[in-house]
Design brief:
Two copies of one chain form a homodimer. Chain A is an alpha+beta fold. Chain A is built from eight helices and eleven strands. In chain A, helix 1 packs across helix 3 and helix 2 crosses helix 3. Chains A and B meet through helix 3, strand 7, strand 8 and strand 10 of A and helix 3, strand 7, strand 8 and strand 10 of B. Strand 7 of chain A pairs antiparallel with strand 10 of chain B. The structure holds a DNA duplex.
Chain lengths: 253, 253
DNA sequence: TCAACAGAGTGGTATTGACCACTTGCGGTC
DNA sequence: GACCGCAAGTGGTCAATACCACTCTGTTGA
């Protein structure tokens, strides 16, 4: 059901349908399933499987007795495993990062538990601002074992995405993680950094990220401006799996 | 692909597989797809379609060459189309509802836009507290066209789930909706009602719900205590569709 | 002129049969 | 006893076909 890694007729069909979607344009119907199965030389079942995925991902809508139509593109990215940098690029904005501080300390009890390491392990703590088109969007505190990222400098992080650095320089591929989201209000430091009034509503994100070997790579604590972000979920009685939320950047002002 | 509303072999198969899952227990394999297709008297493809859904919803895991196994149950409910009442029952808590006010006014510009009705349409506005095991969890403001729910009383809402009432008494079946989530802080009224300090962090949920004919049924504005709820998301580099968040009730204190 | 109807076309469901890729365990071999 | 390899069983993919329920449209009838 999930997209296969190997080249399969279903995945080929998917790609060719995506091409067709662009050709026909938003709001229009793509050829019928039977027509597609003839045109693409695959069975209708294969066509349906490919369309199923595209429908579930929100690119197409089916109307029984009528046809399958190209949906208008989503306005926002899914709340998923993308870095802030990637995310902003996809939204068509210029991402930025300003490193406020980079310190090394021992983990201590709390961080040790978060990162699954000994409390005496040395940890790099990086505090940085996240910018979009020059405007401050969030303040992020990154915690990572020093042994994983030797020689990391503040400017590294302003020039590259952290995940990019992990992958290319340190050979660490992240595969998943857990994220919790809470409402909070900004404190003095956060308000000053974000340029919002004291005690403004904000999202508190906490994320732990895992590598391929199931080791915990990082623990990130982020404060996102509540006046610039909101979460949007499409609810669905029939198909409970469709409740994938998107993290939406609001209009300014 | 989506669960059908009519009785279908696939939905029957789904139910019978769920029975089997309970019988075999967490961690164990259920019978093979071929075996199930014989036992249940349906084709293997139908079995697969039913299993697909259960896998996507996280109840089963498939291991190629090995079998299909019962996953351990999720710790929390998905952020989905369940009513507060259903939700609390599933968490093993006793839901409660205390109606604070029930008024009827004209929609006006803003509500008219939210509900897709004329600004002069008469709207029932219900304000009520949501309780779990006697403790106040949220304050909810419900907006619904008066013509949809004639004769609705405050006590109705304390004795039944609103969705239950809609379905049984008014014959309105809800099929989906859109929900937005923002961080906020409680105002004087909300703080008093929830029993938290003034300006406490909270989640602001806004939901519009659609009926079968795509008409908008309700617009709900809810304030959830930030000290009792958090959102949890499992992130996944490989399968982007799997980022379904859960709305977790925190430990008290 | 307009409403009702019939038919063609669409997605939704289901069957049967086949082959592939992978896991596992059994049995033979060294 | 330890190791290797093979075969059986599993999920993954795909084909060809059939019928149902629904939508839309063009035609027919009043």
């Amino acid at each position: 059901m999930t997209t296969p890694q190997r080249i399969t007729k279903q995945s080929q069909t998917r790609e060719r349908v995506i091409d067709l979607m662009e050709r026909f344009g938003v709001g229009n119907a793509i050829p019928s399933e039977r027509q597609l199965s003839v045109d693409l030389g695959v069975s209708r079942l294969t066509v349906r499987a490919a369309l199923d995925d595209l429908v579930r991902e929100g690119y197409l809508v089916r109307r029984r007795g009528s046809g399958t139509f190209v949906r208008e593109p989503k306005i926002a990215q899914e709340l998923t495993m993308t870095s802030f940098s990637e995310d902003m690029v996809q939204r068509g904005m210029r991402p930025g990062s300003k490193t406020l501080s980079l310190t090394v300390t021992t983990a201590g009890a709390y961080l040790g538990r978060c990162l699954h390491v000994s409390p005496s392990e040395r940890i790099v703590i990086v505090k940085r601002l996240r910018l979009a088109d020059g405007e401050t969007m969030a303040i992020e505190t990154l915690h990572v074992r020093e042994s994983l990222v030797p020689g990391l400098t503040p400017t590294d992080l302003e020039e590259h995405s952290f995940y990019e650095l992990l992958a290319t320089r340190y050979g660490i591929v992240t595969v998943g993680g857990t994220q919790t989201i809470e409402p909070t209000v900004t404190n003095e430091e956060e308000s000053a950094a974000l340029g919002v009034p004291l005690h403004s509503p904000a999202f508190l994100f906490e994320r732990t990220t895992r590598a391929e070997n199931d080791e915990i790579v990082e623990f990130v604590h982020s404060i996102y401006r509540g006046d610039r972000y909101r979460l949007v979920t499409e609810l669905n009685r029939r198909d409970r799996a469709g409740a994938t939320p998107v993290f939406v950047l609001r209009d300014a002002g």
